[in-house]
Protein 1
Amino acid sequence: MKILVTGGAGYIGSVVVEELLRDGAEVVVFDNLSQGHRAAVHHQAEFVHGDLADRASIDELMRAHRPDAIMHFAAHTLVGESMQQPFLYLHDNVMCGLNLFESAAKHGVRRVILSSTANLFGAPERVPITESEPVAPGSPYGESKYALERALSWLDRLYQVRSACLRYFNACGATVERGEDHHPETHLIPIVLQVALGQRDHIRIFGDDYDTPDGTCVRDYVHVVDLARAHILALRALDEGSRTYNLGTGRGFSVKEVITTAREVTGHAIPAEPGPRRPGDPAVLVASSERIRAELGWTPAYPELRAIIESAWRWHRNHPHGYDD
Ligand code: UFG
């Protein structure tokens, strides 16, 4: 099967490409490298440098490669940034996704997997969060992903394009060769590890007055390889119908617990300082992944936070300057 992966030079996309190739797929990566890294793209994948804002280049891509399926990762993905620059998300994320989907429908691509997000649930009524929790995006980022989920439901009804919307909770961890490298880095685990590497003085905790056991935000940290395996299972099931899954481990860890575990893993003191809340951050996001467990047999191979941070630490120690090394 030939799979087009947009954003395949980014963190999650590049690990999914690695797993797809291991699974025997043929992969074409389409990425504008605005956030991704050429070095993150597996050498067995074909790389096409291009931008989803350019409709003509997507049509050309479809004509040249005739993919059997598309996995769409390319997007702006930062909750905090989306509160500062909403139109980057409400406009660019949505327009680029629609360009891709319109081209897919026109060229007869019948399978799409969308990288969606837990930020669809801004203030969940029940935790762990199931797929039937009412959607109320917590930020323009979450809103942009929901718009694309809705667009895919119309592609299903009108063009028989089957899709899977995979709502990731907090992706983290690394493979031996691929890890998290954003510029600037805003994510908790890589920043904590940068402190351990001596690249930062401390980690600032965004709010310690939430209604949670230790006052800091609780998140469901899910290993990027487990996310990648979910994509492969979802792809195999797509011909039986479109579907939506929440992807997490079902366990939440607070910001302080993440820092404590990172101290144990790295042996570094990792100074932490409390600061103000970051706009757009819900207090608690923990997934129920019962649906994908029941329907596709997905179970996380790395449910332990310690193992997740160990894998990230290994990668960051080997790549202290990310892919620039
Ligand atoms: N945090 C800090 N200090 C930091 C960075 C983060 O305290 O320097 C806190 C945040 O406030 C949050 C937690 O650590 O409570 C995790 O923050 P991240 O920035 O690592 O991740 P987010 O939860 O903001 O967002 C991530 C992805 C989104 C996705 C979301 C789903 O970046 O794309 O998980 O839960 F939507």
Protein 2
Amino acid sequence: MLGIDTIGVLTSGGDAPGMNAAVRSVVRAALTRGLKVFGIRRGYSGLITEDIEEMSIRSVSDIIHRGGTILYTARSHTFRTEEGMKKAVDVCGRHGIGGVVTIGGDGTFRGARDLSHRGILCVGLPGTIDNDISSSEYTIGYDTAMNTAVEMVDKIRDTSQSHERCTVVEVMGRNCGSLAVGVGVAVGATAVVVPEVQFDLERDIIATMRRTQLTGKKHFIIIVAEGVGKVNELAKEIERVTGVETRATVLGHVQRGGSPSAHDRIMASRMGVKAVELLSEGIGNQVVAVKGGRIVSYDIDKALAMDSVFDEELFTIAHEISI
Ligand code: F6P
């Protein structure tokens, strides 16, 4: 379907640093191509309640460096109903919106697929700190969240070292261990525990602690993915078995905030332009992705059916050099 002259942009699901840079890119690329563009607030909810505003070049000034999302975000239950979907399509019709760029994770992509199947061309951009989108090697926000977590763990390391303790740190990631593995390698953790790999306390943590104690190691950092959780129990067990005083820290939502890194700003800018290119050619039901460092796009249904790929090589490296 060619001939789209108006598009919308929304952010949905958990926010991620770099979403603003993506919104800016979409708005500017659309206006450059002569398209009218609406900002839709609070994700799909805003489509239902008609919480939308026409964007200008200046609507997205001074946001490239800001965390969060100026469009706000939400997880809409109403949108998943037939009635909610119908309202969203009606609102699009009233404003002449023929296509929508939806920025978020898998849930956002499912919404984009449903809307596309009802005649509104949608293009999804991967935006989540979890880096858990099967179709893309990279998601906007991952680099910033990883750097935030690394900064926090570096601080924890100071006190852990001073007290000669073991510290178990939980990082976000929902059911995906990508953030944990990245952080684990970057902080030189003693062990990384992720949902993708079966874990054995004695083999994977205790034995490593005992072995490294023999060469003089006195404090330990264990990174645990949110999908494994139970860090308080794990800390108690480590202390009971090893006799090393152990504390647990859950980093939490601090990982979702902050000014996006240069990498996230650049990826968001590249992906935003790609999404507008697709829509301006009348191509919808797509997700934008990174493959081999290049920006590509896939049919949403195919993208959602792709198997997730866990970076076993990085996971192995994390443990191989933790000696
Ligand atoms: O998807 C991003 C994420 O931060 C996950 O890492 C985490 O599991 C979830 O969102 C937390 O969601 P909420 O904002 O509802 O606490």
Protein 3
Amino acid sequence: MILVLFGPPGAGKGTQGARIADAVGIPNVSTGAIFRGLAAAGTEVGTQALGYMKRGELVPDQIVVDLVKERIAQPDCEKGFLLDGFPRTIAQAEILDTMLADLGLGIDAVLNFDVAEDLLIERLSGRRTCITCGATYHVVAVPPKVDGTCDACGADLVQRPDDMPESIRTRLREYAAKTEPVLGYYGAKGSLKNIEAIGSPEDVFASVTAVVQSLD
Ligand code: AP5
């Protein structure tokens, strides 16, 4: 199964991506998480991407496309994968289609998480992320058991640099200008499934599960 998780920053793609990947038994390919890992490891690509990410801007298409191409060629993606945060421009969507067609594959569904802008800002401002394993929390909606400490690995929780107010504003502008038009691209292809991503993470996961099961 090949799924695309789509939606604005803070819509809950990462939160749901981890659960869906577990439930379906496919890897969660998050371009944002991969870039953060490469940056933390001090690689050239990671350092290059980090500048764009901190400002809240999209990383240039070619850098992202090369990274995804390499990632989905790995053996764990043979039975399918979930893309979180890719594609984010029409050019990326077109390249992905070509990439998959060359492999005799296609997208099963694009799950579009629909959330109002004021709620997105609330979610991003309250997000805390584990410095070691990347697990995500929210100070109010999804708090850790011990304040500032990851439930999963015990490491410290921090605020992502791109969750500062100025970066959030830029990310929302980038989404509206460059990413939202991709909805029309997938709408025309008939692969788009809209999910009202409000309510608790469990409520949203129930909606996602219903859609994913309908694909079988
Ligand atoms: P990326 O890491 O993909 O960030 P994003 O798309 O902006 O998405 P977020 O991670 O901010 O939000 P999310 O939707 O995953 O929400 P989450 O589940 O964490 O990308 C970062 C950057 O990398 C980009 O800005 C760009 O620079 C670059 N990049 C990546 N891919 C690229 C591409 N293809 N092309 C170009 N550049 C690219 O949830 C948010 C918060 O809400 C959390 O605190 C969570 O606990 C909470 N929450 C989640 N669900 C709920 C709920 N139902 N109720 C209450 N709280 C909730």
Protein 4
Amino acid sequence: MVETTESLNDAFARDGFAFALDAMPPAEAQTFRARIEALERGPVGHGPAAQKLYRFKPHLLFRWAAELVRHKGVLDAVERVIGPDIMVWAAGLFIKEPHDPTVIKWHQDGYHMGLSDNDRAVRAWIALTETSVANGTMHVIPGSHSKGFVTHAEDDSVRKLALRGEHIAAPAGEALAVPVRLRPGQMSLHHLKTIHGSPGNATGQRRMTLAVSYIAPDVRPRSGRDTATLVRGADRHGHWLPEAGMPEAEFDQTCVAAHTASMQIRLAAYLGATMPEP
Ligand code: NI
């Protein structure tokens, strides 16, 4: 358990990650889960097709996600790493269903993100359920962030637009990988160069985590044109096109056009420099 500002910063600098950070009480995390599952029973539906909606900037469409990416407990931790001015660039809810065997191979999130400065960004991972080795939590390799980007191989058999299968076959330090065990409402932070991956879910329960890429406003998109949302402090740089504000509803239909516009801008960037999300 990282308990003080100093130890969070020390752990992050040394290891390239920090956890388990208390972002909110377990009961509050469970209310977010309940709101998502109410949507699954209603307009959004269930299963992989429905989950696509959660994979690209859900905070532009869903009230629960807009609240989570702005949550004080989350931002207070993020601020310790990248400072008081904070933007959300990407976010995705990852639901690993019971007995889902999908393995996310070793990778570095920043490899294809195309950000001008990977040290001024951080990936937050917010647990809405318990995360464990058994249910397929993320494993992180200590110190891997300090060795630069490693060339990723591309697996053509799983090549998709949003997850092209880029991976690192046998990274140094693999045997030292640490499982990110969290209770609901806890979170981890990892550097965009930290090598990580996750096994399948061997349990009968869902694993639900919201991953959020936070950036300081001085970071630029290498694609030259992309969108982001300011969630704390001020943007004195103007490198990012602003996004719409808070959705009014859990699935705000008035936000669909803005969400689509943002997705199209990212799609154009994907075609130049793609980005695997998980
Ligand atoms: Ni990742």
